[in-house]
Amino acid sequence: MSGYRWLFDHVLVHLDAERAHRLGFWLVRQRFRVRFTRGDRGRIGGAGVRAMGIDFPGVLGLAAGFDKNAVGIDALAALGFSFVEVGTVTGEPQPGNQRPRLFRLPADRAVVNRMGFNNDGAEVVAARLGRRAGGLRAGVRWFRGSQARTSTTKVVVGVNIGKTKAVPEHDEAAVLADYRKSAGLLAPYADYLVVNVSSPNTPGLRDLQAVDRLRPLLDGVRRAADAATPGRRVPLLVKIAPDLSDKDVLAVADLAVDVGLDGIVATNTTVARDGLRSSPEDVERAGPGGLSGAPLRGRSLDVLRLLRDRVGPGLTLVSVGGIETAADARARLDAGATLLQAYTAFVYHGAGWPRRVQRQLER
Fold this sequence. Notes:
It is a single chain. The longest helix is centred in the middle third of the chain and has 18 residues, at 211-228. Helices cover 39% and strands 18% of the residues. Helix 4 (122-138) packs parallel to helix 5, helix 7 (246-259) crosses helix 9 and helix 10 crosses helix 12. It is built from twelve helices and 15 strands. By secondary structure, it is α/β, with parallel strands linked by helices. The chain has helices at 3-10, 17-31, 73-78, 122-138, 172-186, 211-228, 246-259, 280-286, 297-311, 326-334, 344-349, 353-362, and strands spanning 49-51, 54-56, 60-62, 83-90, 102-105, 110-113, 142-144, 147-149, 156-162, 192-196, 236-240, 263-266, 290-293, 316-320, 339-342. It starts with a helix and ends with a helix. The protein has an eight-stranded parallel β-barrel, surrounded by six helices. Strands 5-6-13 form a three-stranded antiparallel sheet, with helices on one face. Strands 1-2 form a two-stranded antiparallel ribbon. The radius of gyration is 19 Å and the shape is globular.
């Protein structure tokens, strides 16, 4: 048993899950206080891949939800993630849902969250990303303890945007304006953008996955991103839920091709609770919200196969949900994934997990 696993089983599991997350993330940022040196373009590790016109140093990235406010991108990259998707960021700042809102189901290596897009808002996150970009251009050094070191990471940064809760989901003009605000502010600092219409924790959000509502939303976000980045086309993806029917998955795939999206992120968390090993009491205690982790493995793989068969080889597919081992990762790549993301496995297996999986994939 690893030291982290012992710490998780004997200490962290007894803390409130959100408090444990905040503590763990703070420790990661303290250990790797990252500042870059001019011209640093080192290699994180893993087999590189080119997708959407971007060179990714490896196939494994961190899914949205961990670094909601872009406060630890480079620290997370130093752990071995080849790309970090920050957010979900909304047009306006919001506190999210009432606590407690994050729960573990250790018997299933799963997490239930109903965070509700708690974040600092697009203006604050954009300013933070702008300061980071300025630091990269200025070529500052980073320090660990008192010893100056040169960073060896190059990380791709995605930004995941969602709907502000206060914006009525039935007001299509207001919803579009909210997403366009986020896209306009954040696109200049994003290597790619993801439109999140699949979280179960914002009322009415998943209704936006219906193609008649999704098409004008994606078109509007595309125009806002283009206006904010003259001379550069920021790749645009959509993130979908595993709870869509196969028919609806295929409809989104057809829409993605028709409107010229650069990719699809599949999948978000699930509201299903089928086949869990956890006791009914533990599941009931966790309550409603999105379930992530190992129980999502089967459905996420099925959705990936549906998408790849439908869209052909050209569209970027980012597979996320239930990836724990290098064998899981390899199965996704074999099924047609271009890139991979994880979150819950990182929580359960610790800071050494991303680099270990990247290296095993490379071998």
